[in-house]
């Protein structure tokens, strides 16, 4: 069976918490049919790229739409 959006969102939040304990709290995660959209603030471009890569690696994620802004 396919992995539902709620579990993808939960896994995404867990993954972000492990890697970015401070800014992850400000990150909003939405998952629709396996497409994850991220909102929030990244400290720099490298962090934004890392977040996209982390989320892409989560089982069930089809694509990542990273709309985080860089401070």
Walk me through the structure.
- This protein is α/β, with parallel strands linked by helices and 71 residues long.
- Helix content is 38%, strand content 25%.
- 15% of the residues are buried.
- The mean pLDDT is 89.
How would you describe this structure in keywords?
2 helices; 3-stranded mixed beta sheet; alpha/beta
Largest sheet: 3 strands, mixed
Low-confidence stretches: none
Mean pLDDT: 89
Whole-angstrom Rg: 11 Å
Helical element count? 2
Shape: globular
Strand content: 25-35%
Structural class by SSE content:
alpha/beta
Order of strands across the widest beta sheet?
Answer: 1-2-4
Q: What percent of residues adopt helix (DSSP H or I)?
A: 25-40%
Distance separating the two termini:
40 Å
How many strands in all?
Answer: 5
Q: What is the topology?
A:
Elements: H1 5-19, E1 28-32, E2 35-39, E3 41-42, H2 45-56, E4 63-66, E5 69-70
Parallel strand pairs: 2-4, 3-5
Antiparallel strand pairs: 1-2
Q: Could you write a compact summary of the structure shown?
A:
The protein contains two helices and five strands.
């Amino acid at each position: 069976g396919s992995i539902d959006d709620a579990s993808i969102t939960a896994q995404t939040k867990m993954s972000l918490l492990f890697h970015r304990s401070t800014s992850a709290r400000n990150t909003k995660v939405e998952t629709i049919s396996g497409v994850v959209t991220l909102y929030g603030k990244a400290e720099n471009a490298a962090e934004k790229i890392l977040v996209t890569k982390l989320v892409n690696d989560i089982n069930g994620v089809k694509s990542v739409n990273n709309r985080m802004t860089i401070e």
